[in-house]
Structure prediction request, 203 residues.
Amino acid sequence: VEITLAEGGVAAGFDWDTWIARTMPLLKRKGLAEIHALGMRAGRKRLLFSAELPAFGAKSFALRSLRPGEDEPAAPLLRAGKDFIENAHYLVRVLRDGSLSLLDKARGHSLGGLARLVDGGDRGDLYNYDAPSAPGERLVTRPSSVRTRLIERGPVRAALRIEAEYRVPESLGAGRASRSRRLVTMRCARTVSLAAGAARVEL
Prediction:
């Protein structure tokens, strides 16, 4: 008699009572000499898929195999490279300074310098922003280095990881009107993604 055991629950459609009814007579059979048990540990898996959801509502989904003769559904456009991601609605590129350019395909509009990080210092408190007031205080607008990595390439989502380093003043100066002349490295990491068929950019 061979028995298969699986961790983490039973598959959809599995009838436990029927299995017991068929298996117990075998285990009670006279002359049974050996039982071979196979244990399976599949672990948990994450499944990513796109779906239309009702506003302020919920929707259930079922996972099934393709039926004989059934074709896989056509996948929406989703392309990705070392510095760009693209779906049917948008083309997003990472620029040399770590900011983004966006092409809206439907309207033909192109925007640049999006999601640019700027460091200007803050001498305010927990609630209020107060920029240093000394003449000549400069903004840090460009990173010293930028690295872009493609971390997802579909078929449901494409994503880029943008890692940048900025040389910024270490702290406020003694009088709190200006910032320190000593520079330190500030590291920033962001992820920009597009889902297949979705008319939005996630950052």
About this structure: The beta strands are 2-6, 36-40, 78-80, 84-87, 90-94, 100-104, 109-114, 145-153, 157-169, 183-195.
